[in-house]
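Attaching the record inline, Q. Sequence:
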Amino acid sequence: MTGHLLQGNGVSVNIFKYLCIQSLHETRFSFRIASTVVFRMCPIVWYENVRERGVKGITMRQKPGNQMDVGSIYRHFGRKQRNTVSDVVCCFVDQHGDRADHEVSYMTQKNLHDFLFNENAQRYGFLQEFIYPG
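Structure, as predicted:
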């Protein structure tokens, strides 16, 4: 028997897939979820928020595969937010192996560049834009 889409060890990238499915059923959210790219060695899926003009709320959609190159990812996730004192632009949640604990790395623009353009990197987890509280 197959478990629920969100079943797992506490950090499930399937939550983004679930939110996209809900968006297809005209569900709108009153909150914003950070843009997220799932990696299984290379980027396999990119989820983003969409605010449609004249429609109340936010939907989540999967970005097309032809827009998922590392250059596009760097341009999107490497943008520094205005009016912030921190250099953090995103974080990566490492899901390597079957561990229940996950390592989170906060990245500056330089860290992100090194992470994305290192051909030998072992990337298994998800990259998420950093949204500053406030």
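Residues 60 and 77 are 17 Å apart (CA to CA). DSSP finds three helices and six strands in the chain.

More tomorrow.
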